[in-house]
Amino acid sequence: MFDVVIIGSGPAGISAAIYLKRAKKNIIIISNGKSSLEKAEKIENYYGIESISGKELYEVGIKQAERLSIPIQMDEVTNISFENNFIVTTPNREYETTNVIIATGTNRITPSIKGIKEFEGKGVSYCAICDAFFYKNKNVAVIGNGNYALHEAKQLKPVANSVTILTNGKEMIQNRDASDFEIEQTPIREFRGTNSIEEVEFENNNTKKIDGVFVAIGTASSTDLAKKIGAIVKNNNIAVDENMQTNVKGLYACGDCTGGLLQVNKAVYEGAKAAMNIIINKKGE
Amino acid sequence: MSVLSLNGKNFEEEVLKSTKPVLIDFWASWCGPCKMMSPVIDEIADDLKGEVKVCKINIDEEQSLAVKYNVMSIPTFIVFKNGKEAARSVGVQDKSEIVNMLKV
After folding, report:
1. Is residue A284 pLDDT above 50, yes or no?
2. What does pTM read for this prediction?
3. Chain A partners of B36 at a C-beta cutoff of 8 Å?
4. Which site among A50, A58, A231, A285 is 20 to 30 Å from B34 CA-CA?
5. Residues A77 and A30 sit within 8 Å (Cβ to Cβ)
6. Per the domain annotation, does A99 fall within a domain?
């Protein structure tokens, strides 16, 4: 049982971890090893550092955490749920924790396939656990080719009549659970229907009847995770109070996923703020 | 707390024939986001007692109502005024946004 599970190892996540570790909290960082910071060629507007590449700054942050013996687990979070405590799920294990900090940056990938935008809420969904029920005994598809797509497919399987994973031209990742599903790798041309989705047409002109499509491309984004547990999302940013806490008590968000300035200094501040609030709240109990 | 559970039998009487605005929360026990919204809806029921009728529909028990009103994702909140749908929102919301729906 952890005091805090931090999702993300960029400036917000590492900053939170440093404060929490110093306050002797039992914490773990779960990171998929990717950060938008790495894409910044040069950072020259951060106080006290004349010039540094984003990649270098990111790596220094990781080293700093490691020097404090903060555990960093390379894994991919596919779900957050709440049963007395928070349960953070990855393909490999579940982490039970009192608090969660989402610090994953922004990475929602909406596919530019014809029909996706048009049928949002009319057969296109971004959350299997929220909407699976409405596809009872129906034929559904999941778009994606990774662990997150598999997680969503597994949520749908007990409810739906059939679940097909559409990789849209990509290879499916190697995973023992993948064999439970029909996998279609042909590139998708469009989704069609009248009032709601009725079929998918592939680039090879084949069609397949489906009643619903769940989008789960790449890894679960910050807002995907927030929505699954009932945190408020506004304009694709997670809504937080001045302590970086969401409307779900014990669930915090910091860094790019809360919107505003997409800057290292803001992410660092928010990570520290979330950590301080957790530390203070704990003491008060 | 004065939140009314709706079903196929009382829906017409309590919603369509209501003289007050009616707020309906479509929910289910397995829905995490619904659990987060439940206390907010209870609060609204207390705050606006006498002005607004606040109701819940468990979609597991009342599937036909969910289908009839095109509920495709939960939580869904629908406001009825004079027997007609006046506003709808899907997903977790601020309390103030739900209250605003009642003012439409």
Report:
1. no
2. 0.85
3. 229-231, 247-248
4. A285
5. yes
6. yes
Q: Mark whether B31 is an active-site residue.
A: yes
Same domain, A238 and A180: no
Joined together, the tokens standing for residue B61 give: 């028990």
A199, A226: one domain: no
Q: How far apart (Å, rounded) are the C-alpha atoms in residues A155 and A141?
A: 12
Two structure tokens written together for A204? 């090879």
Domain extent at residue A15: 2-107+220-284
Which residue of chain A is at minimal alpha-carbon distance from B37?
Answer: A230
- Mutation pick from A137, A228, A247, A251 vs chain B, by most beta carbons of B within 10 Å, is A247
Nearest Cβ partner of A232 from B72, B73, B92?
Answer: B92
What one-letter code names the amino acid at A282? K
Structure tokens at A18: 């440093």
List the single residue in B with minimal CA-CA distance to A132: B73
Q: Which of A81, A131, A228 sits opposite B72 (nearest CB)?
A: A131
pLDDT, tens only, A160-190: 999 999 999 999 887 777 888 999 999 999 9
Q: Over the stretch A7-66, which tens digit does the pLDDT of each residue have?
A: 999 999 999 999 999 999 999 999 998 888 888 888 898 999 999 999 999 999 999 999
Q: Classify residue A113: in a domain, yes or no.
A: no
Full domain range(s) for residue B15: 3-103
